[in-house]
Amino acid sequence: MRLETLAIHAGGEYDLETGALTPPIHLATTFRHGPAAERIAGYEYQREGNPTNDRLRAAVAALEGAAQAITFASGMAAITTLLETLRPGTRLIIPSDCYAGLRLLAAEYLPERGMQVQRLDMTDLAAVTAACANGIDVIWVETPSNPMMQVSDIAALAALAHTHGALLVADNTFASPVLQQPLALGADIVMHSTTKYFGGHSDVLGGALAFAREDDLYRAVAHRLHITGAVMAPFNAWLTLRGCRSLPARMALHCSNAKALAEFLSAQPQVEAVHYPGLPSHPAYDLAKRQMRDGGGMLSVQIAGGREATLAVAGALKLFTNATSLGGCESLVEHRASVEGAASVTPHNLLRVSVGLEHIDDLVGDFAQALAQA
Ligand code: PLP
């Protein structure tokens, strides 16, 4: 089955008892069992397993071409639960440009667990290869990356990881499985903040891991989640499952809007640089074309004139709301350096843009008036 069909049907079997077409939301925290805890319908307690969550897990696994998927309370819960499952002393490389939460986790908490973390430019394969020479356990890639929109070579990084007996984990949040399937390119685990494109409406937090194999690591992560408890609530699973149904259709419009806006911005004198994988000017345009079906709905733009001019543009936008997060129907703009705070490494003249599903002429018009005013 094609991805568009899976997105509609995976995890979507009608309810056997009632014939209801949309999946029921099972809010029960506990499930009746036999006197010696014999399971009657496979479930015992919501933290350990829930039928609505299982439907979403099946859908995520189907969309990523995974053997198994696990859902979490947030993207950060997925990252943390996975990394905490790895043994102390694990050697990990993370991208120098990545979601700030991962960077802070690596700086503040992972060393407490005896993990050795290096931050590297993942687009520089020679540097990553050299860093692996003394041994490596996990390479973490985020592509396209947040917020610089760097594109890294998943297949090459997977091959490199595997020559060292290491794992490649890919944060696929920006691309979504519609545009990129890291497991098919050799990655071992895919991570998502389902808060973004999967949910798609800026109203549900969640995270997921999709595993290439149903192996000991998968079982250890599932067990750790059960014990440590950062589980996705059933209502969140239901909303996210609903988001899956329209994910391919939404991604198509996100992509065409983002490309048109990127082209417009590139031609403006007030703009210093546009970072969008679907533009031929992107340094990894050819790789992005090989690895992704389309350029995605995210872009970042650097404004000529520094921080003040950049904040003036952000302040003058009317349709793009100044807000963090991404992947919803509405367009958002964000001065990442301000949101990331003192530890930020993001240029102060950069705005990250989550291009929504409004009419492209309105989106371009809004940037045109904001650039003219600032
Ligand atoms: N990964 C990426 C690329 C993100 O953009 C985010 C959040 O913005 C996360 C992970 C963390 O996800 P969550 O906010 O759902 O915890």
Quick structural overview:
This protein is an alpha/beta fold and 374 residues long. The protein has 13 helices and twelve strands. The chain has helices spanning 3-9, 51-64, 75-85, 100-108, 125-132, 154-163, 176-179, 216-228, 234-266, 285-291, 306-316, 336-340, 360-373, and strands at residues 68-72, 91-95, 116-120, 138-142, 167-171, 189-193, 207-211, 271-275, 298-303, 321-322, 332-334, 350-354.
In the CATH hierarchy, what is the superfamily of the largest domain?
Type I PLP-dependent aspartate aminotransferase-like (Major domain)
CATH class of the largest domain: Alpha Beta
- Helical segment count: 13
> What percent of residues are in strands?
5-15%
CA-CA gap between termini:
49 Å
Bound molecules: pyridoxal-5'-phosphate
- List SSEs in N-to-C order: HHEHEHEHEHEHEEHHEHEHEEHEH
Percent of residues in helices comes to: 25-40%
Shape: globular
Placed side by side, the strands forming the largest sheet appear as 1-7-6-5-4-2-3
CATH topology of the largest domain: Aspartate Aminotransferase, domain 2
Q: Mean of residue pLDDT? A: 97
Cα-based radius of gyration, to the nearest Å: 21 Å
User: What can be said about the biggest beta sheet?
Assistant: 7 strands, mixed
Counting DSSP E segments of at least 2 residues, the number of strands comes to 12
Given as residue ranges, the uncertain stretches (5+ residues, pLDDT < 50) are none
Number of spatially distinct domains: 2
